[in-house]
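Title: Prediction job returns without error message
Component: structure pipeline
Severity: low
Priority: P3
Assignee: unassigned

Description:
Job completed but the reporter wants confirmation the result is attached to the right record. Sequence as submitted:
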Amino acid sequence: MTKKVILSSVLLFFLSIGSVKAQNDEGQSGTVYSLYGSGMPLLNNTAQEKGMGILGVSFTDNQSVGLTNPAQWGSGIYTKIAANFDFTNYSIKDSLSSGNNSLLKIGSFQAIFPILKNKLGMSVALYPETRSSYNVNSVRTFNVGGRTNEFLSNRTGTGGVTKFEVGFGLRLTNNISLGYAPSYAFLTESENETIVFADNTIASNNVNTRINGTAVSHRFGLSIGKTNFLKADDYIRIGGAITLPTNFDSKRKSETIKQVGLQSVVVEVGNTGTANVGLPLKMSGGVSYFFNSKFNASTEFQLEKWDEAEYGFSASEENAFTNRYIYGTGFQYHPYRSRSTKFFSKFKYSAGISYDSGHLEINNNKIETLWFSAGLGLVSPDLRTNSSFDLSFQYGLRGTISNSLVKENIFAINLSVNLTELMFLRRKLN
């Protein structure tokens, strides 16, 4: 890949900053649990890390770019660019019915530039922190003058929190690295609720609600590595990261539209309201052990203090928040490093399992998810570039059908495209 391609990709990245509200344009086809608060919190780990069932806070290699731990950005001489894509299918079931929906989305975009060779690196990234994408139907009742009226509510919503981040990783010694990454966070939510009454003498209503807010976020990383830890050709890495709470001064505006005859008439425009919306403190850590050049394993965890998060626009949604715990473990095998010419030796293979306690507790049930993962990676045959393509497959079990809740069987395919280039070294031959 030439320098022009790298620079063009970076230019496209900066142009994409103007579309940070693109989450609002997605179809309402994600998890139903994303209607709570500012959406479902996401893990912005790469397809390689997803294939191992881990976060990536302690794991890194020369072919991939990772967002999870800023301390890892100071090592290397390559300029790296990575884009992540996700396709997710949800098989949904409750006590009355079942269905399916799918969501195709762009995950994160990141570029890392080596400012000082194997010493200081800069990361520029755009990625979603939370995502809303839902379509929920419910039957409700209300009483007027002693008379019970029934109506159908259909809520569709999109949005979430997106971050534009510029961070730095510094390699203090051969074994210790630190990182810091400030970001500018955008909160955008859009919901449309359609209300149709069983009594056809009552006109149907549409309520459109918009929420917006901005904030500054900060996160830090630490990485400690040691070669020849237990034997001559092994390596161990311990990593940790922390994201400080992020607080938005948010505004909400709504309008109610009624169908009067053949016309839609705005009958009420809600006053612009303000409230605090806050994302919680996050702490993660883990250890990765490289037995040799061909085999490694990792175990990692993350704690998110959602019981301290805020969502001032809905007390009931805020009360559903609960602390989130994530545990993952997995391994990876690299047969291509044996110099074999066999076809199946040209790939890297991974597998793992993870448990997510979820950040919601609804009707005394935690919305937990159990994930089973597998991954496949292909390294560029041109070893001078160190580029790679990673594909992961995940199967998850989330929620329950008890207590009027929804159970989701989730199948996800994740793709990471990692491009690298020795941009700042002059080539002798083109």
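Comment from assignee: result matches the submitted record. The chain has three helices and 21 strands.
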